[in-house]
Each structure stands twice: as structure tokens, then as C-alpha cells.
Amino acid sequence: MREAVFSSTGFRIRAARPTAAADPVAGWAERVAASLFFTFFPADCRICEAPLIQISRLPVCENCLHEPRRLGGSLCAVCGEACDFPADLEAAAGLCRLCRKAHPPFERAVAYGSYDGALRDLIHMLKFDQVHPVAPVLGRMLADAITTLEASLPPGVISVVPVPLFSKKKAQRGFNQAEVIARAALKHMSRPERFELVVRGFARLRDTGSQIGLSRHQRRKNLRGAFAVTGSTAIMERNILLVDDVYTTGATASECARVLGRAGAGRVWVATVGRTLRMFDTAAIDAAIGEDLPEEQGQDENREGRGSEERVAIRARTA
Ligand SMILES: [Zn+2]
Ligand SMILES: [Zn+2]
Asked: What is the pLDDT at residue 2?
């Protein structure tokens, strides 16, 4: 069986090149393998529906794999929010208005890309469709985000703590996506000895449910008491890198950082694959102070996102 390979220089996926031409038996085997493969795997890109021309364990085309771009431009030096007013950021030591109002309980949050388009679809493929071959792609993006933090991390071993899922939810899904992505990311770190993955000792004690429609204050209240340090020497007095798939309003990251800090952890940094960007104009900045953006759990409930709806619509039209 041919295996897709993730190259070491990017997200490009390539199937092993057939060496069948010189060997008719091997050529036959290749064709059988390929036909079996297409029996079990969709022949269209799961994101844009373009026909897949290469065999891959990941049913996503090259264009969609290369669509997510690293966040650039003027970003808040603390929470990583994009700001369309560089002068405004500079005047406030690089902080967005929310972080100027109150510094979050973590040192700094970074994300690889904007949580929309193909990046959102890739994250959903892992979380909701259990397409595990997408994990190395997301892991590489998370590793990229962590690398931008590395210079500011203190010396010593950093505990990498995935945001935990409620145990029942983890059992239903079969895995915690934050943990799976973190594992994949750590394989790409230039100094892996600096990081220790810690998946025990920090727990989500209850299902925090959907946070759609909750105000910032209500969201904080909803998360209060949801997380607890249940005892780990790798958390106490350790500096922490909290990792998750998506940073939305920062309510989850803030609550985790607060609980970890109160339990005796050192300083907390945050890295995610995606980030919801919302502050592109003054009205949005003003609204963000008391906005009603869906929180991470809300998006779990809202799994049929915009992209999926569009795909359903496309299928309906072409059926
Ligand atoms: Zn595609
Ligand atoms: Zn900020």
C-alpha cells in the first residue's frame, strides 16, 4: 500500500512515485492498490471538491493545503489580535484596546493563521470527521506558531499543556484534538528537549456547553470552576505553554491560565493553530468589549459551519 508522505519543507503531500514502469507485476499491484484506495477514499478534495490527482491519506488538494497563510501585519503583542491601525498599536506599546483595558492572565498568545476558509475546514475535518491524517498538517502550523514564541520563553523545560476536554466529550470523540495537534507539533521543534507534553494533571471538570449568545461576562461565569489542576509535578512551578486548536475570544485561554497560575504554575503562554480575527475597524473594536462571539465550545456545537453549508449547497445543485 502506498503511503502519503509529508515533506519536511512544507505542507505538500506526495504519494510515493510508482516505479512500476520497469516491472509489469509491480505495475499491476500499483493499479490494484490505487483502485482499492479510491474505493475507500473519496476522489474529491473534501474542502473544494476538486478531483484529487494524487493518492494521499489526506483527502485535500494541494491548493486547499496551501491556502492557510501565516498571520502577518499588525498584531497585538499580547493576544495576537490583528489591528488595522498600526499607529494606534504603536501608540499603545503594541497592545490592542482589549489588552490595554486589562492584561490577560497569560503572557502572550500566538496563532498560526486566521480561523476561516480552508484552515477552519482542516480543523473541522480532524475534530468532527476524525480525519487523523490532517493532524500533522495542523501540527506543523502549531509548531510554526510556537517557534515565533520561542525567543521570549524563559530557559528551562516548558510544560506543553493541551486545553483539556470534558472526559465524556473526549470519550465521545475518541481523542482531544488539542493533544493530537500538540503531539504532532512537538515533532517539528528544533529543540524538542525544551518541551514536555503534559496531558495529565489538568482537567475540564464539566461540560461547559455552547457559549453562543453569551456576553463576555456570562462566558467567564460559565467557565468558572470548569478547569482544575488535579495534581502534576509537571505543572507546579513550571512555565506553561497552553495549546489549543482555536483561540476565539480568549475566554478559555484566560480561564485556564488563571487556574494554572493559582495552582502554582509559573507563567503561561498560549499557542493555537487558528485565531478568530475581529478587530478590523473601530466599530468592531468598540463592540468587542462586550461582544457576543461564539466561544470554542459554541463552535463545537455549531459544526455545520459556513464551509459545510456551502458544500451541501454545491452538492444539492450538482446532484
Ligand atoms: Zn481543495
Ligand atoms: Zn490584545
From this structure: 40
